Amino acid sequence: MRLVPALVLLCSYPACGFAGDGDEGDAHEHAFPPIRNTQPDGAEPNTPQQAAEAFSAPEGFEVTLFAGEPDVAQPIAMTFDDRGRLWVAECFTYTSRQFDVDHGDRVTIFEDADGDGAHDQRTVFWDRGFMLTGLEYGFGGLWVLNDGTLSFIPDENRDDVPDGEPGTEPIVMLDGFTFDAGHNVVNGLAWGPDGWLYGRHGITATSAVGAPGTPEANRTLLNCGIWRFHPTRHTFEVVATGTTNPWGLDWNEYGDAFFTNNVIGHAWHLIPGAHYRRMFGQDFNPHLYGLIDQHADHYHWDAGGDWTESRPDSAGAATADDLGGGHSHAGAMIYQGDNWPEEYRGDLYMCNTHGRRINRDRPVPHGSGYKITHQPDFAFANSPWFKGVELKSGPDGGVFLLDWTDLGECHDHDGVHRTSGRIYKITYGKPERAGETVDLASWSDADLIAAALWHSNVWHRRHAMRLILEPGTQVFRDFGEADESPLAELFYWRLGKVHGLELMRYCRLLVALADISRPSDAENPEEAYYFALGQIRRVLKEKGDGERKEAVVCTLLRDLHHTGLADSIEGASEGLFGVGGGSPSPRVRLVAASGLRRAPLSDRLPIAAALASRSEDADDHNLPLMTWYGVEPAVAAFPAEAVTFAAESKIPLLREYTARRITSELPSEPHGAALGALLERAALLTRSVSEGPRAQPAPPAATSSLTLRVGDDAVAFQQDVLTGALAALEGRRKVTPPPVWAEVQPVFAASADAEVKALANKLGVIFGDGAALEELRGVVTDRSASDAARVAAIDSLAEARDEAVAPVLIDLLKRQRGEDRNVFAAAARGLGAFESDEAAAVLLNALPRVRLEDRDALLATLVSRPSYGKKLAEALPGLGVTTLSAEHVRALRAFQDPEIDAVLDEQWGTTRATPEEKLAEIEAWKEKLAAAGEPDLGAGREAYKNVCGRCHKLYGEGGDLGPNLTGSDRRNLDYLLGNVFDPSAIVPAAWRVSTVLLADGRVLTGVVSDSNDATLTLATADATVTLPAGDVLEIEAGDASLMPEGLFKTLTETQVRDLIGYLRTQSAPR
């Protein structure tokens, strides 16, 4: 008998749901809500069979129809049971914005009893779902992501009817998943090789996750990332954070996980404890300082990156079709079945939404992890209706592919075609009868163990592994009894013959069993830990394939870290990190860095020091940041010890980030002392290089290890320490320096390295150092200095509110000498820090004469203060309405000044319209554009730079404040015009505009990208500014997008035609 999860055993439950409109008839009385399409009338897909026949795939492959409407519709997720039957989540509640309460979702089972590749039996298992976005089978029932929860639907007797009385709700294991995300929702469930249940989450809203009844303060916050849940202990934890909207996850034969994502990168190696690049917003830990980028070395669209090999020659620029189809991806499968040819095994397959195809990439070992390279796209649907969402290999090695089947961009702005959906099967050769029906749940324990260790098809290995881990198996009950356990008996018989992957799978099974049996058996975890560690050491001594041996060691070490099996074992950290931290293999060192987060805080600095001692890892894709993520809390907790860690580190990033983390805690006394010690070490290194060995005894901070570093690159160390300290203090003013500053500042000021001098001067300004202020004032007017140095000096002095620089900046703009041209924008921005009638007059006078690229800086200052804004409004009739952008108009209206508003109403018009007015305007522009003739793409590109390029990137050009447009569905005119006329229709919290009132009288509008006790960072269309928290009087959060309405008001119809034409191109015009 298979047992259900522990929570179920504690409940006297009637279970949930019922079989709905299955082929056998309804098991209970329940009416499933009517299914309605919102796709415009007249838009209908081809038939399911025609869709299957339209596919093109490599020679020898067959794409056949397994199921289609009306038997299946809106398939969003799938899984297999132990009989090889396909369970499908049908999500009818999805809409373009929020889920539709008038619809319902359901789970349907499809069976191919005769093995001909098409289903011949359909059963509705449960049809009371809402916002159903994931499902997985095991441990006595079905797990579902439903209605903002992770829930369990028991079916212990496997009769395809939820156990208990009909109508009872599923058993909620976790709740708190957000309802505020339209499409970046919690999604996807899959059993990991460690026995945990994995899921994914998108970026647009934050969930507060916990077991039902968990107090808010004890819940785990989560937005974009990967999470997991233990099926018997009910432990929830975040595995990694970041990206945009991960919608696919799978593991290779070594247990390394990979997931797919959208917009900012499509393929990532899942490293436990990692923090990945985010599309927007800030990680919950403000002290990460750096994020890991995708592991693919390319994009599936022309992002203007380094992946240039696939771009055509002079015959024409590459298109998204050439590169992979676009930025939207769903599903992930690393093929490890036994039907496709060997050349396809181990590659990563994903659905490309815009490209209507299946992409194929290849994870290749590289450095500490993987580089994911592009392979020829695997299959093409050749239909605009194809919306692939998931693909999985089945019991016969064939691959099942879910097709949502709908038109439009991935967010369904044009309506949802709910009555369609397809499931295809992709096999090499025509589908053949599979023979007897598979039912692994009926296999003996010995057969399950053999399948888990040696079966050639990953489907059998994974199902056998999960069945062994379920508490009902004899293997589970006998675990730890070495003389009686079939697992132990089988292994010891073959001990001399088990190597490589077999040994790895055995040890993984052992570790997972020990982990899942906790806390019922206190001895097993320790026994399993020491056995697995012994096998790791044994493997390291063996001769043979170095790469495979390395992968086995990585896998076993990762399991011991990641399960937390060693967390409560005394001395475990020393044993694990003794193997991993000092390994000559960067892959093994990555496992050690990943596990660092589980080590006791007091152990982390010594462990991290071993990882930081290898200069060859400085440019590794993962190791510097993973080491930092693990050691960062220890740096804050033990600042004195962290000084030595930084001084001895051979990885610049770790030196810089350590200095930054220590400085961020000022004015804490221990951290101030630690910063002083770091600065003194840097200064002493300078003296050692310039003066030779010191004759007098070194001060306490200069330990014996310092003497050993005399031959190292002292300047680089100084740059790292100063850069880190300066970054921590950005936006702060008049910070009390450590006492040693007066001694070390002259040393840095006398440095022969210009960057060291500049960094020290900037730091001195923040510390209120008069000499540093005077030095920077001189740089501002020194026309022999570089433009970059002068701009940096202006920025530092303005940030410090140095009143003496204001007349200098006014003079620069008043005279407008040619040699000052490249500092005009910085001077204009700097004047924003000072209230001055003369400054406003000079800015207005300079406005018609400065270069176009400088004008935004002048306008940004003029719209930052009510007094300046009033003068600008008075001058607007003479300047002309096209002087202002929509962003400037919004900033001026934020003053709520009737006189300013009256001028804007007359010159610009109103900026808010009703939804009906917006729709009417969209239709009117569609008619205008249809009659406007061919666009001038060169002129369109110029319009793009002026109107869109400050915030958005296209073909590698533009800003990063808003989404990258290159991979979006820009061919869709409704999509483009909808975003222009109603940009706030769907806007994540991270892109909503706030109005910030400052103590100096300024009113700034923008997105709050970061905030803490010391500073607030505001991103605007023109710049990103960091402000002292003490300067902020009020923040008014809005619900509008950073992208304002009214973008077309400054353009002629011809310019709009050219802009839209340029935006709709699929390759960069030449």
Automatic annotation (TrEMBL):
Pfam families: DUF7133. Residues 36-50 have a biased composition (Polar residues). InterPro entries: 6-blade_b-propeller_TolB-like (IPR011042), Cyt_c-like_dom (IPR009056), Cyt_c-like_dom_sf (IPR036909), DUF7133 (IPR055557), Haem-bd_dom_put (IPR013427), Membrane-bound_put_N (IPR013428), Quinoprot_gluc/sorb_DH_b-prop (IPR011041). Residues 935-1067 form the Cytochrome c domain. Residues 27-51 are annotated as: Disordered. Residues 1-17 form the signal peptide. Keywords: Heme, Iron, Metal-binding, Signal. One of its GO terms (molecular function) is metal ion binding. PROSITE patterns: CYTC. The keyword Cytoplasm does not apply. It comes from the Bacteria. SUPFAM superfamilies: Cytochrome c, Soluble quinoprotein glucose dehydrogenase. This is Cytochrome c domain-containing protein. The lineage of its organism: Bacteria, Pseudomonadati, Planctomycetota, Planctomycetia, Planctomycetales.
